[in-house]
């Protein structure tokens, strides 16, 4: 299986469109990022999100930033999503539980001001897990309302 996507890339102060080829084979997901000048980077991983993180770590020292939802600081795929390639990720709010309304496509566009490094993404994930374990969440009425109405929403497009 092979798919080609157009992704927004920030190089210095300019935002341009490059081509990202996603290929699945031999149990791994392979990403190839191409600029108009040729292949810029290749990465592999257990799913699209993991391969994207590897690619972002390689591109960061060169001043290249991928502007997609998978590069946002506040996202993570679920275990089920990862088992199917992690094509969708959850936006992780800190003040309420995550619902289907928080699903976004991993390779969908995200503004550059929401993008962060792999380390910032890991730090946000650690804070999110600490906050989820907080017993005060159980008395937060907003948390209960969102939890009760989770099935009412649809994923973002």
Which residues sit in consecutive blocks of at least 5 with pLDDT less than 50?
none
| Overall pLDDT | 86
Structural class: alpha+beta
Largest sheet, strands/sense/barrel: 5 strands, antiparallel
Estimated radius of gyration: 17 Å
What's the overall geometry? globular
The strands making up the biggest β-sheet line up spatially as 4-3-2-1-5
What series of H and E elements makes up the topology? EEEEHEEHEEHH
Q: Domains counted in the coordinates: how many? A: 1
Measured between the Cα atoms of the first and last residue, the distance is 23 Å
Give a topology summary.
Blueprint: E1 2-11, E2 14-25, E3 28-35, E4 38-45, H1 48-59, E5 64-66, E6 75-76, H2 79-83, E7 88-91, E8 103-105, H3 118-132, H4 141-148
Antiparallel strand pairs: 1-2, 1-5, 2-3, 3-4, 6-7, 7-8
Question: What does this molecule look like?
Answer:
This protein has 157 residues and is α+β, with helices and mostly antiparallel strands. It has one domain (2-152). The chain has four helices and eight strands; from the N terminus they run ββββαββαββαα. The strands form two sheets. The chain has a five-stranded antiparallel sheet, covered by helices on one side. A three-stranded antiparallel sheet has the order 6-7-8, with no helix packed on it. The longest helix has 15 residues, at 118-132. The two termini are 23 Å apart. The mean pLDDT is 86.
């Amino acid at each position: 299986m092979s798919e080609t996507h157009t992704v927004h890339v920030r190089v210095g102060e300019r935002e341009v469109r490059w081509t990202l080829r996603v290929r699945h084979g031999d149990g791994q997901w392979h990403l190839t990022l191409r600029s108009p000048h040729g292949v810029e980077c290749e990465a592999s991983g257990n799913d699209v999100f993991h391969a994207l993180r590897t690619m972002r770590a390689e591109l960061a020292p060169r001043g290249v930033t991928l502007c997609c939802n998978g590069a946002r600081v506040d996202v993570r795929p679920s275990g089920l999503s990862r088992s199917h390639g992690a094509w969708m990720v959850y936006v992780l709010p800190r003040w309420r539980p995550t619902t289907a309304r928080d699903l976004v496509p991993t390779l969908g566009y995200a503004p550059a001001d929401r993008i962060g490094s792999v380390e910032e993404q890991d730090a946000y994930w650690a804070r999110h897990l600490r906050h989820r374990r907080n017993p005060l969440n159980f008395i937060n009425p907003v948390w209960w309302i969102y939890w009760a109405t989770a099935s009412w929403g649809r994923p973002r497009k």
